Amino acid sequence: MVISKTVLESISIIYLILAISGIVIISVTAYLAMKKRDDDLIRARAFLSESFLKDIWTLILISCFFLIIHAAFELNEMLGFSIEESISELMKETTELGLIASIVLSAYKWFQLMNPK
Question: How many whole angstroms from its chain centre is CA 57?
Fold first, then answer.
C-alpha cells in the first residue's frame, strides 16, 4: 500500500498552519504577560482554575503519547524492521501533527488564561 504524496503534503501544510498559528498565539500571550505585571494574579488564576489544570495535564499526556509513538517509528526505521516505508512515513507525519496540535492547544489555553475577556 503506497500512501499518496498528496496526503503527506496535506499533512505538512496543516502542520505549517498550526505552527504559524502557534507562533502567533505564543507571541500574543508573551506580550500580554509582559504588559500585565501582576504575576501573583496570573499564578492564582492558573492554579485555582480546575479546568485549566485538567486541560493542561491532559495536553501534556497527549503530547507524551505522540512523542512515544514517534520515537517508536524512528526506532523502527533505525533498526530496519519490516513496516512499509510509506506507512511509517505517514505515521511519523501524523504523530508530528498531533504533537504540534497539542502544543498549540496548550498555548491557546495559556492565552485564554492571560486574556479572560
Answer: 13
Dist CA 37 CA 56 (whole Å): 23
**Residue 16 CA, distance from chain mean position:** 12
Q: Which domain holds residue 33?
A: 5-114
Q: What is the pTM of this model?
A: 0.79
Grid coordinates representing 83? Answer: 513496516
Q: What distance in Å separates the CA atoms of residue 22 and residue 37, rounded to the nearest whole number?
A: 23
Total domains, the chain: 1
Helices (H), the chain: 5-35, 39-48, 50-79, 85-114
Contact 109, 56 (CB under 8 A): yes
8 alpha carbon, distance to own chain's centre = 18
Q: Which three cell numbers stand for residue 54?
A: 485538567
Local mean pLDDT, 10-residue blocks, the chain (117 residues): 74 91 92 78 78 90 91 81 71 88 92 79
